[in-house]
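The data are set out underneath:

___
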Amino acid sequence: MPKKDKKEKPRLVVANHPKGEGIGKVEPRAITQEMEESYLDYAMSVIISRALPDVRDGLKPVHRRILYAMWNMGLKPGAKTRKSATVVGEVMGKYHPHGDIAIYDSMVHMIQDFSMRYPLIAGQGNFGSVDGDAAAAMRYTEAKLAPVAEEVMQDIEKETVDFVPNYDGTLKEPQFLPAKLPNFLLNGTMGIAVGMATNIPPHNLGELCDGIRYLVDHPQSSVEELMQFIKAPDFPTGGIIFDREEIKRAYATGKGGIVMRAKAGIAEKEGGYFRIIVQELPYQVNKASLLEKIASLVKEKRIDGIKDLRDESSKGEIRIIIDLKKDAYPKKVLNQLFKLTQLQDVFHINILAIIGGIQPQVLTLKMALEYYIEHRKLVIKRRTEFELRRTKERVHILKGFKIALTYLDEIIKTIKRSRDREVAKVNLIKKFCLTEVQAQAILEMRLHQLANLERLKILDELKEKQRIIKKLEKILDSPKEILKIIKEELEESKNKFADVRRTQIISSPVDKFTPEDLVPDEPTIITITRDGYIKRLLPEAFRTQIRGGKGVIGLAPKEGDVVEHFFTTTTHSNLLFFSTSGKVFQLKAYDVPVASRTAKGQAIQNFLQISSQEKISAVLSFTELKDFEHLVMVTKKGLIKKVAIRNFENVRRSGLIAIKLREGDELRWAKASGGKDEIILITKNGQSIRFYEKDIRPMGRGASGVRGIRLKGDDKVVGMGIIMEKVPEIRYQLLVIMENGFGKRSSLKNYRRQYRGGSGIKTAKITQKTGKIVSAGILDAKEKGEKDLIIISSHGQVIRLPIQSVSILGRATQGVRLMKFKGEDRIASVTFV
């Protein structure tokens, strides 16, 4: 039988009344209730008394207590500095019942000019650095209040704020500070409480003052209007921030992410070398950790092109030097650094603060400024009431002095006849209708005040105080006057402390880094073998040689494999791969891994969803296709098809059907055409045909095409070229390469135009010496001086030679030797660089 759930037994709690009542009395209490209440009490204590700032002065309790203790110690801006240990002891002993390290760390934070936009404490000694170095021990450092802190503390002695008992009830401490400056947004803060956190960025004082003054005059203004003045956060370390729209969203909701970026530039050195110089860092980025990260990325080869890394920073100035290799692309390296390190970071804004001393709340920019204005209205009202009260008290005494001076002889006689001080005071009150305060003040008058000039001073002071009373009463009677004072004080603070913005704002969103931003767009060679191995390498891997040479060791495919595709492109090209089965696939050139000249490469199935029975027959750069209208495809059995290029704009990862093939046929070529061009096809046995593109009607992707050339016996198509309408015929040449290393160039004038589907004419003299044609295509004579010919053999031998070194011969000739072979080696692939 399963056991029945036992009901939770109540916990016994021993009551301990403060007055001693009920001592020893046991009360039943459920442990769940006890835990709930205890945890909530703890959570609220952390939220209210530790982690979150008060919206009125922007300070957490520990910071407020440090400032108040230093104020009471007389450590004002004009005073001498005192040991930090003295300040920490004062704070810990009187106001903050926590450890000295926690207090000292908070004090250090208010001194660091890279942590606070306007430091509230002026320090003397080592207080840490942007490298994450800790401050010196508190016994070595000294501090006093900074001039800005005087604005935060000003008028605290005028009953402008509420005071509460300290932790042991022996003293009083302020619940918040008068905060003449809008410190809540001025310096910002970060804090983690129980279940909530705050992260408020610092701002520029001048911008805040202008924004608040505008809000005072225009209470209904929107966030967008306020952002005319308060443009964005202003970090003490400078840097760059992006995206005005994202900043606006953060100000409008109280939450958002702002992209920060280091201020970095590219400078050229002697000898063609470049360097990256970092002069400002994003806020709260540890410089030493940043340098370690960069060094680690270079060591792991995740960032290429960095030769040296140095820190030339001095006190108050950031200067990181990143020397680059000669072949590096500075902008690409900088983009990689932004992508992979804290040279670009995000500041997650969360404007959470304590409202009214008890309620945590997320605030918008406008709400934060409104709370500041309400706080200052109350402070100014209480300050005015205090000053009015003190002024009236002084006027009351001065009126007593006036009576005394009017009846001076009688007052002197009355005092002389009195037995003692108390009797004299009573007699003065009865005889001259004075108050006790006035009588006491008369008794304390000094003889020099009876002089004529001193008597005039008293009367003048009475008039002045009466004028001040009227002014103060006017302020209390008019809310507009209070708002006017707020604006005047903000203007005064702005003139005294405002400085220029440090953080640059770029309105547009930060560029999202794509692989193109991190990979240099440079020429590259891609090779694909018959067995489907692909790799990428630089054109410089093959040096230029003279015609008839042996070449250099190039590709080393596995035994029995040969290189079939060898072409040049750029790393940013979007490549279309056409397979022998008539499908088309898409891949970025930079996705093909770089390998050495002699490496085998990787199986193409790692990059394309191609079956083991398929081979890659043609590769095109989609970027280069945008200037054309059609794609012309040719099969090895002489079928030809024309399709609109727009049909290949969105190629799925699994591929698309490019042409419907008949049994035994294969797709071999795919090239772009302009719509009014000509096409030439060349066969293995030396036949060729030239006809107009308009003879082929456009078809859909699923069509199989029409006959391009009539083949005889075992003949097949080995070459195909497009003769563009806009290029003069005289510039075109037909290049023919034969399997035994022979080749030639022939003028297209020797090839007459025919109708599509014929047998064609002879294009080369095929003999046992030359072998069959393995490759043929169109050359533009204008570019022959700019291009080299790269020939690859089936055994992996490579030769690179100028196009000019290939002789121009007649249509039916056998050509000249271009490459020598050993044994049974043959030409496998040809490309241009």
In short: The longest helix spans residues 365-406. The CA atoms of residues 413 and 424 lie 10 Å apart. The first strand starts at residue 11 and ends at 14.
